[in-house]
Amino acid sequence: MSKVYQHISPYELNENLFDVLNNQWMLILAGSKENHNCMTASWGGFGSLWNKPVAFIFIRPQRYTLKFMKQNDFFTLNVFDEKWRAALELCGSKSGKEIDKTEATGLSLTDTIHSIAYQESRMVIECRKLYVDELKSENFLDKGIVPTHYPKGDFHNLFIGEITSIYIVEDLKEGKDQG
After folding, report:
1. Of 111, 112, 127, 167, which has fewest CB within 10 angstroms of its CB?
2. Distance in angstroms (rounded) separating the CA atoms of residues 71 and 40
3. pLDDT, tens digit, for every residue of 115-145?
4. Measured distance CA(174)–CA(37) in Å, rounded
5. pTM here?
6. CA distances from 83 to 23, 25, 44, 144, 170 (A)
7. The domain at 5-173 falls in which architecture?
8. Which 8-state DSSP code applies to residue 42?
9. What is the DSSP code string of 117-147?
10. Which residues, listed in sequence order, are joined to residue 111 by a DSSP beta bridge?
């Protein structure tokens, strides 16, 4: 990666991942430099499953990014500083079928070990897909979730990915910019 990133193990990460998901938007990115798409994400989680550190994310069937997630074995979760909020808002409001989000936002692609990421990210979590499934109405125990979050029946696809690499901007590792 062209930025000064420190490659760390998931067990070395010293971030509040609930804060990252709920308050600091991130982009899910899948594909190649030539053919890719991203989308904003704030639903998901991190944990340990099958003796592996994992991230799990959810993508609705109508999202263009779903195609790239299904076609590729790896994806990245890209976390940004607040100054990139407008770019992330664009990525959450426009479809990659209509515009090239990377070009429209002024973001720059870079290679990771197995995938691609955005150079402007302050943290990149690279994941290898382990499991994919579709949420099903009959499996919801809290029946209030379906009419509230799925009135159109467009249930999310669930992706569980093994966290294979984490890149953080060097000064974050040092604790200089952990806000």
Report:
1. 111
2. 19
3. 999 999 999 999 999 999 999 999 999 999 9
4. 32
5. 0.89
6. 14, 11, 23, 37, 18
7. Roll (2.30)
8. -
9. EETT-SEEEEEEEEEEEE--GGG-SSTTHHH
10. 116
